[in-house]
Amino acid sequence: MTDPWVALEPGADPAERVRVLRRAHETFTTAGTVPRPVRSVVAESWRRSARAGVGPDGAARVELTDGDLGAYRAEHPLARVMPLFRELMGTFAADGEHLLAVCDADGRLLWVEGHPATRRRADRMNFVPGARWSEAAVGTNAPGTAVAVDRPVQVFAAEHFIRRVQPWTCAAAPVHDPRTGRVLGAVDITGGDRLAHPHSLGFVQAVARAAESQLALLDPPVPADEAPALTALGRDEAELRLDGRRIRLGRRHSELLVLLSRHPEGLTGDELLCALYEDESVTPVTLRAELVRLRRLLGPGLLASRPYRLAAPVESDAAVVERRLEAGAVTAAAGAYTGPLLPGSQAPAIVRLRRRLADGLRAALIGCQDPDLLAEWAHAPWGEEDVEVWRALAAVRPTAVVRSRLAALEAELAAPVG
Questions:
Q1: How far apart are CA 198 and CA 232, in angstroms?
Q2: DSSP 26-63
Q3: Which GO BP terms, alphabetically (predicted)?
Q4: Where does the pLDDT of residue 340 fall: very low under 50, low under 70, confident under 90, or very high at 90 and above?
Q5: Which of 142, 195, 206, 309 is deepest in the core (most CB within 10 A)?
């Protein structure tokens, strides 16, 4: 085969290839070996799927529905190029009895559109908006594998890891943020065996590149009057985006801006003293000096006094996580959480906020029992020793690695102190 990313070489018999692939799939699921002529990209994907604990009789889980799904889609960068996807692929999908699908970088389907009868068939395997189709969730499939390997890829028939998906063929290509190169998600065409053709792979790749070009045009330089935004999760020194500038704040200034952003009504000097300092001997003069330096750093107009307050709303990443948790959008909240709030801060009010935010997200993750979300938390620096999350993960994904790590943590807890 000249191109390993294309499912069928010219002249191949699709029916015969399906029979060979089914035998190969059975061999892999029973013996763990991959016989020829399975493509290397598929063999590697099968191995990743097995290591993730995916079973050949599994099914996709729907994670986002109704308002939660709508809110997440509205915020996603690919929402801005959906009209382009529909223009370029909608007629092709409808006329060919195919589906146009778009997923995020975690393989979660955001849109699934196309021929009504094909959609009804796809509904039966949960190929629907809000369902997670990452490799770690449902094994080898075009959108999930495309974001996993960051390459356009076709998946033909029994190359799919889960048996109920094997009647389908799909081709997908990743879409990148044109500024950062980060994978935003993938665009996919799903249907029957007729899609196992080099043209379908080239088609979705061209559509993905067109989307990236349009995103580049839609992202002009940041306007000077953009609303201020504060990034304080996972970093000891917050960053404020203000009037096109990025201002790195010292630790005390970071604490002040986090607190003031949460209290648009303002805080008195005494309230700020109690919130920031454990040592009651700190004088109001010390606090006023910090506020004067902060006002000088920010420039005129943003920091007002009597009481101390921000003259314009400042959006913080911590507030985004809180809002999503309050709305029940656990997946979106976890995606926005990049670490504890100002982890090095010992200011009493910041410590309380940090614990409340982390505990609320932990409880939501444990409650939703999503193995991918639990694994992301458990393997993050702040979750490596979180025994409750590891227990929840072991209940839904009891792999040898997870069980071993949980046993080690529980042994540490049971060990005598001293």
A1: 46
A2: HHHHHHS---TTS-HHHHHHHHHHHHTT--TT----B-
A3: phosphorelay signal transduction system; regulation of DNA-templated transcription
A4: very high
A5: 142
